[in-house]
Amino acid sequence: MLEKFLKGAYSFERQLGKNIVFSKDEIAIIRKRKAFWGKLVHIEKLINLPYFSQINQSELNMLLGEKGFEVKENDDLKAWEAMDQAIRNKKYGSVDLPKFKWINPTTQKAEDDTPFINFFIPFIKYAKGRLDEQINNCGTRYLVNDNLQKDMVKILIGHLYKLCIRVLILELNVCREGNQLQGENATERMEFYSNVILKDEQYWEGLLVEYPVMYRLISKGVNNWINNMCELLTRFSADQNYLCSIFRDNSRSFSIIKLDGDMSDAHNGGKTVFKLTLSNNKTIVYKPRSLKLDRYFNEILEWYNSQSVKYPIYQPKIIDRETYGWMEFIENKKCQNESELEEYYYKIGVMLGLLYLLRTTDIHYENIIAFSSNPVLIDLEALFHNRFHILEQNTAPGKITGIIEGSVRNVGILPNLTFHSKNHGGVDISALGGDSNQIVPMEMPVIKDYLSDEIRIEYDKGRLHSSNNRPISDDKKINIYNYRLSIEGGFLEAYSTIKENMNTFKKLVELFKTVKVRQIIRSTQQYSTLLNIGTHPDYLRSGLDREMLFTTLYKEGKFEKKYNLVAPYEIKDLLDNDIPFFVNYPNETKLLHSRGKIEGVYEERGIDLVKGQLENMSEENCEIQLNFIRMSLMDEEKYTVNPVLVRRHDKDEKRLLEIECYKRAKEIGEELARTAISGNSAEDIGWIITNVTGVEETNWSVEPSGIDLYNGTPGILLFMAALYKITREEKYLEITKRGMNGIIKTLEKCLSIKNEMEKETVIGAYTGETSNLFPLIVIGDIIGEDYTELCSKILSNTINVVDKDENFDVVAGAAGCILQTYNVVGRKGLEKKSIELISKCADHLIVKAIKKDDMMMWKPQIASNALAGYSHGAAGIALALIKAGEILGKIEYFGAAEKALNYERSLYVEKEKNWADIRALGGVTNYSQGIIPATWCHGAPGILMSRIIMLEYIKEEKAIKKIKKEIEVSLETTIFKGFGKSHCLCHGDLGNIDILLQASNYSDKEKINNVVYSYLDANISKFKLGRYKCGLPGQNNTPSLMIGLAGIGYEFLKIYDSSLPSVLSLSLDK
Length: 1070
Prior knowledge:
five-stranded antiparallel β-sheet; alpha+beta; 27 strands
């Protein structure tokens, strides 16, 4: 291997030298590199990384020093050296190349010659020359016409551009900064760089020496392209007779007039799917893998269609050639009428049933095509999917996760959020979703100012591109909820058909025993992100730097040791610029990779898991799956207002309504007890919840209840404990105690994490570990347990991470932390830490505030603007600062609160007597769409509550006058515009009832009580029937406190017994 490119070798290719002496500066660099690498993989001592299990500390230092080593030869390095020699000798210098136009993805207009093309020409000539030699040797020259030749080279150029564009942009900027570019304008200077500097052989070689890893990847990509193009042409030539059977074409000879690449991810040597348009005007898809799996699945469809089913399922035509195959191209055709749409979704339900019972996953929006009324699977790889994680069945979360993993949810067809977090709603890439223009919560590189010397890479959140899974036009919106009965009907048909023909179906399942099925260890997006980062110049100067990036895959090995078994294979694939690819046989437990077999990953056989799924079929199981379907198909949220018709209620009428609320609370308690799930040890308890996420709080995901107050087990147990307090029924005490066992264990585990990078950084009143302070105190007092020590640990842990808070608000940020901590200031053993934490949070808010004139504002992570309102806006933050000022005696906190209120007042809309909701998605705010909520979380009710509490602490007369005026306005708005949406606490009627009951202690008690009891009187008949509207899109039931049944039940109890504290104000004395 050439000396100048030695650093392009990876660690396992390097033969370390002996007796190498490093200077002080070199030792400092080694230490710095070691520290950086350790930080990247979250490990204190890099030598403990499993990737380095074969070397000692001294050898690791030698490796990182990159001095005095030799390179072991292998086929990749030999191919790289051969290409280098051929290019230097200009062996293929006379090869003719087609002329290309660069398509600017920003404008979709053809521009002049491709930017930087002269850098690539030597590689393209080498590739084309080598390919010409090979196709001449294998007798496929007759297939290569001008159009095909251009398409093949175009595929190569696209691949090389992805590898090199960042380096070329960087080096262009270096030349620009060094005044090396000539030209009167940006375009001319770009042309000078492309057509003069890049043609300079010394400069061109200098780039390769500076970035040897890039050069190596170019070699790998070129050789893969040569092999894959030759293989495609050879197979096409050999299979023309077979292809005629798909087209029913007797001509026996047709040529390729168009070739499309990038039809799939690259695996196993850059192999990818190609679409071929042929001279007979037909289109076919080439797949570089066996289609035996697809063939057997077609046999299942053929059997299914032979039963008495409502609609036959479309079977795509395929040719399996053992190691590769051909498939008819499925064109996206839209449904023409409502009956076709009903049929399409019915068939989706059928497919969901079949794929669920075969333990299929990864059926996302790109893997299914809407072909008129037919949903057609075009990439079927992950049947008989095995369990990578062996879930802890002794715990409730483990058991719930197992239930979800083995359900219809895991297929990928039903709407489901990926990449979601506490701060981002996530993206729906399901076969039923995949709507275009969804924002992906990861910043992606975007090239700006093409064909200019100011060309640069900027980072922006990507958007999902449109796909062909939609049965209607992209410009038309479809509410899948309207077709839920069709989907359920199709699922029921498939389920019952298989259940009634179990023996036959089991025989069909046996066909798959010896068919390779894909096993997805991590998401393709995770791999793709690493590969994308890996094209940054910083990772192309040394093979070690590229390895360093990919060893971040070991981070997850801390929590699941099996990742350490597969990581070496993943890293090798990524180093080759491939997406890692694993398979196994359903009748084996071994995981297979192109580089070998991996033992110890699976404990069960895939075929046994499928048989278990079939044995588990029952009416109860079917209903569970239907419930998952219903939880996944939610209606679009409709904002409505239904003013309360108010009348006076006497004392007896009020008490009767309070008793009805008590009864309804008990009914909800019984339902939650029925749906609770315990681990096998019966020592804890949990629920399956639907979690609302995102800016507009209209996205959702189905998951186990966590350890936060908003959506988790603590909030549900708060209701159960309240039930026990009022009813004294032991079953509620038992559920509460078991649930608290699980919460305490989980919290202790989270709080024991020592690595700062892995610690919880959400510190709000309703999410994060801090949200447990309120339920720990309230529940502990009810059941007679002292959780002071655990509260102390939460405070200590939070003190260390306040400066990482980027939410700031009540729900998830420092303001909420103040409100939670305020309640424990007077608790014995917690005084000092709680004061320290409140001070740190208040200071953090002031430092992080956006300051403008006499205003302060904070932009929470869930929004693109600073907001008004209680949960995420100025009202809640101002209240927190006021409480901090009161407990700490700091006047500056009161001043900051006043500035926060000034900002909120700037958003007041006189016409609406409410405060504008400027949450924005895609630049469009709720307010601009005519939506101003009137709920606890956004709008007048939450502001009303904040102002009432503020009056307890504000002494300045002018400020009091303003606040009283705002109480008057927000009270009126709450009464007249605060009802008719859902029944939940966060953004529903019962949350507003809670706020009105708080307001009744301040304002006209009789008037407010008349509103409260009139509302209850008008709705009690619905409540008796169990017709509750939870705070989800579609208002489906979910167990949680703030948006679900537990919160509705809790408020019913609070109406019955006002001594219960409000979970909206978190005031223990209210």
